[in-house]
Input
Amino acid sequence: MTRSSLLPITPDTHHVQIDLVYATDRNLTGKPIYTAAHCLLLEPAETALRKAIDIARSFGMTLKIFDAYRPPQAQQVLWDFLPDPTFIAPLNRGSNHSRGTAIDLTLVDPNGNELDMGTGFDAMVLESEHFHPGLLEQVQHNRTLLLGVMLAAGFRHIKSEWWHYELPGSRELALIGNDKSGPLRLM
Output
């Protein structure tokens, strides 16, 4: 995977819903982390996202994005709040969000309702695992539907978070500092 520039993702250009929770107080820290709400992805991830959007649209669904590119400074804020490597990547390893290759999202039905995924976004609990035992059948169906969309588009999942997807091979890329994210800085 080669590095290129971060590209903006908007409802108008990508036909998605965007709710960047880290620019609000509706996240696990209870306070805004980003000072600006810009949804950005590295070019290969943006291309894969477009595939996922088309797949979801083919059966009447829309994607809703909670987070995409995350500056390393924001990753540090999250780690300082919850230093648990099950859910938050420590800065010495780095998050693929900080490489511009990871995205947190869900599916929205034709009526504008998020599908029931059993837990909310950012719920740092065992029940957030993709295939946690004891999930209601409809919840597992919804998670599997999202998983299928994202895998078909070229992303991979991580075990602990049903909402998190990233491009394979992302770890070989360098972290993208907030100063290198161009004019659309988040912090």
Notes: Residues 21 and 169 are 26 Å apart (CA to CA).
